[in-house]
Specification:
The complex is a heterodimer of chains A (215) and B (256). Chain A is an all-alpha fold and 215 residues long. Chain A is 80% helix and 0% strand. The longest helix of chain A has 31 residues, at 127-157. The termini of chain A are far apart. Chain B is built from 10 helices and 11 strands. Chain B has helices at 2-5, 51-58, 85-92, 110-120, 125-138, 154-166, 184-199, 211-217, 235-240, 245-255; strands at 13-22, 25-35, 40-44, 66-71, 74-78, 81-82, 95-98, 172-176, 203-207, 220-225, 228-233. The chains are: A mainly alpha (215), B alpha/beta (256).
């Protein structure tokens, strides 16, 4: 198989790689905020339960979580394994990343001085106005570097979908590598991820710059 | 007491037998005071005397344990029991608070810091903008409308904070050590603005360590120590002829 055929074949999986990437961000970024707020709940039981789930999601391999979400229903209830593996893959990724984002959000929210809340309160901002207008914009600016880190990791983590044979780029590459006994597909995959992340880096850098209008 | 002698008009703020503890530490013990229209009251005293806590109780940032807080004769707290949230929100429009460390919103321009709260309260945008611009002029900040807080000196930031509080047209303005976070050469410009407000008969309560300022600007000085009002009166009485030993002892430190 020529290098070009290899690249073309693997490119066919890029759409699915992108699907995992963008759908995971779409769901995990907001879900992480909900988890963060639950984690900071004044109701002890709520924060304790949330904290427990976060430790599980961060303390066990993503690969294991992918397998559990994809095949768990079959082993537990005899349900059919999803035809479209994208659904369990995105569910597993979103939940896992939400746990990481939640902790980043929490760190950011807790780093805002209490005086900002007090100033808003005295000025008559409601709790919701205070959070959305005063706290959240400052949190977003502060956590951008950590979020960028996670997003870059997510690009590479999409390769994990091979464990449930979802036909994204890396899975295809692995299959070619097996059939051709060649290491080449892995190098191609490496270049793909590198380029993908170069774009991610550029985009995140631009967002960070746009938030740089104040200190 | 000054506020209670005048029966026809209730004091803007009346505090009676206010108590507040942090755990086992009693910070305010039986504090009573009233603030009438046009009063400029300075609260002085050693750190840990409860001055700031008193202002924070009056502005509902701390929950007091006992006593009464009244705004315009209406109970915000009665014998340790607070009015409803909605009522407290209405009382909140009567006072403004200027913090020691400004607490401007760093992601907002000077103008937005000042205008957002009144606009959120449903005031007319044009009117708020006009008021904000005149406050900016008054605070000597013309040309800084679009600047962000980090681009300003501490003194300028504090003047923005004063404008932000005034934009809501409070009946009384509280200052919690407004110059304590400033370099000495910047305290003057902030004190000058407060003095100007005093001349315009703005009602103010100022917790301060600036004794010459307290003496010159206020018409009543309250000396607090260990959670109690030890002595109060006209600035001349308290500063030049203190009755209590604790007051004398405190003021002696400043004479050196």
């Amino acid at each position: 198989m020529s290098l070009l055929t290899m690249i073309l074949k693997m490119s066919e999986g890029l759409g699915k790689t992108c699907a995992i990437f963008f759908l995971t961000l779409l769901f995990s970024l907001p879900l992480g905020m909900i988890v963060a707020l639950l984690r900071m709940s004044k109701v002890k039981l709520v924060s304790a339960v949330t904290r427990f789930f976060i430790t599980i999601l961060r303390g066990t391999p993503l690969m294991l979580q992918l397998l559990a979400v994809t095949y768990g229903p079959y082993y537990l209830f005899g349900a059919n394994v999803a035809r479209n593996k994208l659904i369990p893959v995105v569910i597993a990724f979103s939940i896992n990343y939400a746990a990481y984002f939640a902790e980043i959000y929490r760190g950011g929210i807790e780093s805002i001085p209490i005086g900002q809340y007090e100033a808003a309160e005295v000025l008559g901002y409601t709790k919701l106005q205070t959070f959305l207008r005063i706290i959240l914009p400052q949190v977003i600016k502060r956590i951008m570097p950590s979020v960028t880190n996670e997003v870059v990791t997510l690009v590479k983590d999409t390769s994990m979908a091979f464990t449930v044979s979802y036909q994204e780029m890396f899975t295809i590459g692995k299959q070619i590598a097996n059939s051709q006994t060649s290491f080449m597909p892995f190098l191609v995959a490496g270049v793909f991820y590198y380029l993908f992340n170069a774009i991610v880096d550029y985009m995140m850098g631009r967002i960070e710059k746009r938030l740089n209008y104040y200190k | 007491m000054a506020g209670e002698s005048n029966n026809s008009v209730p004091s803007i703020l009346s505090i009676r037998r206010l108590e507040k503890s942090f755990g086992s530490l009693s910070v305010l013990k039986d504090i009573s005071l009233s603030v009438d229209r046009g009063n400029v009251i300075s609260i002085i005293g050693p750190s840990g005397s409860g001055k700031s806590t008193l202002l924070r109780c009056a502005s509902f940032l701390e929950t007091a344990d006992g006593g009464d807080i009244l705004y315009d004769g209406q109970y915000a707290m009665r014998e340790g029991v607070y009015a409803s949230k909605a009522e407290l929100n209405r009382f909140r429009t009567r006072f403004g608070l200027v913090f020691q460390n400004f607490q401007l919103f760093p992601h907002y321009s000077v103008l937005k810091n000042i205008t957002e709260a009144p606009i959120l309260h449903g005031e007319d945008k044009e009117e708020v903008l006009e008021r904000a611009l005149s406050l900016i002029r008054k605070m000597g900040l013309t040309g800084k409308e679009k600047a962000y807080p980090y681009q300003l000196s501490g003194g300028q930031q504090q003047r923005v904070a004063i404008a932000r509080a005034l934009a809501l047209r409070p009946e009384v303005l509280y200052f919690d050590e407004p110059t304590s976070a400033l370099d000495p050469e910047l305290t003057g410009e902030v004190l000058k603005v407060i003095r100007q407000l005093a001349e315009e008969k703005m009602t103010m309560v100022v917790v301060t360590h600036e004794m010459p300022f307290a003496k010159a600007v206020s018409n009543r000085v309250i000396f607090m120590a260990d959670g109690l009002i030890v002595e109060q009166g006209e600035p001349r009485e308290v500063f030049d002829d203190p009755k209590e030993e604790r007051t004398k002892q405190f003021l002696r430190v400043f004479e050196r």
